[in-house]
Amino acid sequence: MNEQVEYRYCYCLNNPLKYTDLSGERTILGRFFNWIGEQGAKPWVRALISMPTMLSIAPAEVLTMDAMSGGGFVTNFIQGGFSKGFQGVGNYFTISGQMFDTGTETKGWGWRLLSRFTWEGLNTSVGNIAATLTNSSGVVDDIQYYRGATVLKTRGDYGAITFGNNIIGDRDIEALPDNPLFQHEYGHYLRSRGSGPGYYFEYGIPSLWSAATNPYDHDYFWIERDANKAAFIYFTEQYPGFDDWFYKRNPLYEEGDPRNYSYPVYKYGHPYRPTTLTINKH
Hints:
- The chain is built from 11 helices and 4 strands, in the order H-H-H-H-H-H-H-H-E-E-E-E-H-H-H.
- With 282 residues, the protein is of the alpha+beta class.
- It has a domain at 4-37.
- Strand 3 and strand 4 form a beta hairpin.
- Helix 3 (43-57) packs across helix 5.
């Protein structure tokens, strides 16, 4: 009988006259440790107590991880705890490592790698900085890769932007040839790869200006159509029979052109085949 009573009131430390638990599900010690956990989950506690404690115990380790993540470890730890902090470090290594992967399916891998750090050097540097800053903000949910392009999938609903080999997109982007957002941005990556240091001045800045000043017709701006054409040509050449182009979302011709309203099926060498060499910039 005594053993049963002792077990029956274990939730209140065997003292039902002093302690109460209306739900009957948690002990006093359980509540205490749960409260500790709740306090530790608060960003201000991690910023004012947990992080200084970590720095005092293992300053070299914390500072090294933060340096490797471009400030992402401390930022993400304060915002989301250890899991996000270490995820930020892992993302940093992924972003940095993929600068050296130019796509093994293409010929001349060595020349492509040399180009990335010479002819495309400015674009590569800006892209790495932009990707690292995005990663440090803690909004990156996934990092994907497709043939030389690193795709950062983030939260939100804003579209995407391309810096060198890094494509920073919203939650709808997937590094797949049949993803409409990726199709367009991969075209920008191809143009960045081919244009070298002149990309931001000839394409990047005018594209941003068009998006800011003329958002409704931005998809038909010549730079955007140029990116579409570059990607369309690439995918049709890489995948014979490719028929997953989102022609309504990623137009290949000027606004009002009837060719924008039917799937662009072209034979190689056809006079109407889209090409960046014959594009009308006006």
